[in-house]
Amino acid sequence: MNHDIIERGRLPLLVFFLGLIIGFVVIRVSVRLIRADVSWWFSNVTAGDTHIHHVVFGVVLTLLSGLGLIAMGLSGDQLTMSILAGLFGVGAALILDEFALIFYLRDVYWSQEGRTSVDAVFIALAATGMILLGFRPLDLYFDALHDLRIGRTVVVDVVAAVLNLGLAALVVLKGKIWTGVVGVFVWPLLIVGVIRLARPTSPWARWRYLSRPRKLERAIQRERTLRRPLIRAKIFVQDLVAGRPDVLPHVRAATEDHLDRVVHPAPPPPAISPHRGLSGTIVGLPGDDRPPAGGGPDTPHDSEHEPVEPHT
Fold it and tell me: Where is the composition biased (Basic and acidic residues) (predicted)?
């Protein structure tokens, strides 16, 4: 702790990492208890008939703590910076926990799309953890290009950074998010991700594979083969915890059912309406044909909280 964290000035990064974890765990527990109608310290926050999502508090907290980090960056001691970094981590957790709300521009917290928020948190934790362990983006690039440098050649460093980030973006477009994130630190993974087939539901497959059915079929079969053992292991653990009898046959059947639901060709891009809504957003986007949450007594809602009853 003293040698690797405090003496190297990584204590704020460690506290940020812990704040991110604690903030995510606490908010997930909170929304689950609220949804289950369990009375405890936290509850819904409303302004009149408007439910205030916790991403709002996350934005305010990250803004204030971020300003503090900037202001104290040169003169602040490590303890002060660590406190501000911890608050920044908690705020980031509140924002990333509702990342899907920002991405889809609608409340999808408990729906399938809502899992995007969990993926975003895990990616942030993975990247922060690697930096905390001493890995730095582009380190392998700089080591490989060491002989090409004359002193500190800025041009070589900039080209390496642009190439690394460009390859990472291409890998992410192919649907391989974890490969892209880790590849920023370990660049050979990016080469592998670029060469290999894209995931069949990725934007790259939508753009490049829809007119090449044989390649799309290869991508689907490869996805099913690679994901089958991971999904089977997850269902196996879930059934063991739940005490389900006759586990193995159920795991095999449930795995194939899950693959049938999630592994499919990417849909063609939707037509974008030339008209705009009153708020200035483009209408005709995916999901616009869904009934709005709270539209009637029989309308299902996917918010993390129960609908707010209007004041009478």
Answer: 299-312
